[in-house]
Write a structure and sequence with these properties.
Length: about 650
Amino acid sequence: MFRGIQSINRKPMRLVVAICVMAGALMGTPVVASAAPITPVPKTSQTYQNLMTAMHGEAFAYAKYSDFASVGQQEGLPPVSSLFSGTARMELTEHLAEEAEWAGLVGTDAQNLQDAIDGELYETTTMYPGFAAAARMAGDTVAADLFADVGPDESGHAAAFQKALDALNKVAGATVPDGPVAVMMPVVPGPAKAKSQQTLDNLSAAMHGEAFAYAKYSLYAEAAYANGNTAIGDLFAATAKVERYEHFREEAAVLGLYGDSAANLADAIAGETYEKTTMYPDFAATATAEGYAETADLFTEIAGDEAGHAAAFQALLAQLQTVPAGGLVIALSSKTYQNLLAAMHGEAFANAKYTDFASVATAAGLTDVAALFTKTGDQELNEHFAEEADALGLVGTDAANLQDAIAGELHETQTAYPMFASAAEAAGDTAAADLWADVGSDEAGHAAAFQQALDALNGMPGARIPAGPVPVDVPVATGAAQAKSQTTLDNLSASMHGEAFAYAKYSLYAAAAYKNGNTALGDLFAKTAEMERYEHLREFAAVAGLFGDTAANLKDAIAGETYETTTMYPGFAKEATAEGYTAVAALFTEIAGDEAMHAAAFQKALDALGKSGPVADTGGQVASTPGFWAAGLLMMLLGAVIVRRRLVWRR
């Protein structure tokens, strides 16, 4: 298990414990910054109760917004996903972390374990049985069954924490148990499966509790790691994962928490508006009256943050719902927006694939074919991808680019790759499953590095831009696929498209950082791009059987280019014209013409190659037909995350 919760100094007098939990696991080595100690407010005060209420709300917002981000991904709306992801992290790593300090939430490992035991026992003996009985009486059997199912889980958590406490207290024979294994429940939008308002209220209370347990146990885990109690840290971290990704999402499905992105944005606006106008101002007034001026300042500051969140959500909702006239701004809800994303993934993948096909041709002594692949790959990246990125407004400020990169890496490590690995494991494709598990850990590291860079860019004391990863230049390996399931092959295609897109995108972000004078940031983006391209993509390609001999590679390229020139780009151009984006339609049409010439050139090379003897097809299975190319094109949006910004046609 990887561990890492960053500790940062956000203000001279306040130590902020930032939680960076990747897919429920804690990564890296905890680093504790020094700061003046804080004296928590007394537990007898109303301000303490308000801090507890606020922390439950921030934890719930974190979990909810993170899952709303997944819905945005599913709908092909990366800016929505990026905004929700970024806001979720702020709720957790700033707001809740600061409130936790003033409440004195984290104690010794023994105190933390006792707190966890007390909480879990309350849930299993009182709260969940009460909720189940009320739901059963109201006829909400689905909710009743869920409450009855979650309760025993909490009993198991309490027992495990008790064993850990016994071990900490050196009770004879006591050992810290392994943590529970979470079931990663999917985020499924849909209506509520309960009709009673009491049941709905109880579901909301349960979810707030599960989200708070996740945040609290994550902090307890960091404290245990810092104290050298690794096994206890692992137990807290594993239990946190169950609360967040299993219990919370199961209850959310019954509550009907997840709607479409428009509904989720409206939900977020309502919540943030209440906090900024009512809850936090009231909490600040109470803290002031009780003489806790610094806590009042914190509440007031957070209220200002929530106002900014509400405004950002409102602006994005307006863009999502409005299709502007004149083709100047590409609406997030438009088909053209999603088509540009799809096209960019395709162009980035073509660049990576063709340059590696060139390596295969070079090794076979076919220098003319290698030159053709190289030249075509360059055009796909430096002309087609670049023009489409310009149309979409892909590159923003360095801070916006970092925020986008963080959201994308977290999506891969928390959602896409665990899901792909699980499906591959179920299908018996162990090589693919192991690879996704391995690459997911790398992506978590990338997210953490980008977060450190963003902290440094924002002037956080002690934060520095990391040097960046050291990529392994994986050789281009020809051969058959190491996976038998079509689902696994589809997911490998999606992963390769995502890695290729990350390479192309991060290369542009690096160029922007260099231009802005942020050399260290440019180096971080460039090194990460290299890792995505020359390590991750080639590892996926080897398992997918992407690379065959040169004849097979030419056939693959012809199929892809033919599909783009006859079907994909003409369809995209037609939809752009219908939506009023005539400049984008013209770009799609122009690129379709280029792809036709590519197909013809590849066919000519294949014909010439065929004159020298029979062709042996020894690989390249993953994308050798238009049908599979289309399937990959549909799947690849999973990895797309672009930060929210005004999207302007600038050419």
